[in-house]
Amino acid sequence: MTTDDDRPAAPFGRTVCAMVTPLTESGALDPDGAARLAVHLVSRGCDGLVLSGTTGESPTTTDAEKAALVTAVREAVGDRAALVAGVGTADTRHTVDLALAAEKAGADGLLVVAPYYSRPPQDAVEAHFREVADASGLPVMLYDIPGRTGTRVEPDTVARLAEHPRIVAVKDCSYDLLGTQKVLSRTDLAYYAGCDEQVLALYALGATGCVSTVANVVPGLFPAVFDAFDRGDTGRAAQLQRRAVPLVESMTAAGLPGTVTAKALLGALGLPAGPVRAPLRPADRGTTAGLLAAYEELTAGTAQFQAWPPPDSSPSCGYGGPR
Known about the structure:
It is found in: Cytoplasm. Pyruvate binds at residues 55, 211. By secondary structure, the chain is of the alpha/beta class. It has 13 helices and eight strands.
């Protein structure tokens, strides 16, 4: 199903935040903090949230914590945003177990990364995704991030997987613009830019939206980019994307994982985040000061982008999909 401009429909919203997983100072899961952060992000423009993704520290949270996180956020945001649970692991059986637990906890969809470390061939990658998609009733977003997994989900593999009725979307961190266009031209999959510097470029080519780390601290940025593009003001859309470059670079391309930089900046802004779990280490004071300077440069004079103070109300962000 596509919209009038031939853009695939948005099964999980348009601006999806790859939300951090708030922890207490002792390092335990902070469900209350997660609920507060989720409400804040939704009230500021995100109509979808990825929980327990890469930015959500999925490798170092337990299965029970992942389910508890979905439950807490579901109770907090209700049906005002789609919740996509990261369930990908290097083990197909474990991934299936996490998928079933996420469905039970109230997720709307599953984010499934290519199996990592073992570097399976493409037929095994395809079989892995199909087994997970067959296991639950939830729609699936494929997650292609070869820089972390060591395994590409090749365009031909993605095109075959698009035939599965529950595989509906892709989070694209492939940095393969040609491959992305090949899949967009051959399938109705909803493509989500997974790299913040590519959001407008992929949207202009027909992507559905983004799954953004930077949205943790500027949840209103990419809705503004999309809205400008949709009304034909492509110059304004490009201006906004370029304006975000210093913050995007400092958060995602300056040598530290996005989890570390997002939590450092959220903490500096007084929003729920807490520490990171080992082997990650917190950002130092100098790094945090640089992040805050980039944030302030982007948001100066633009209340729409500012993360703090939170708005007085929490209006619906338009997601009305099934739960």
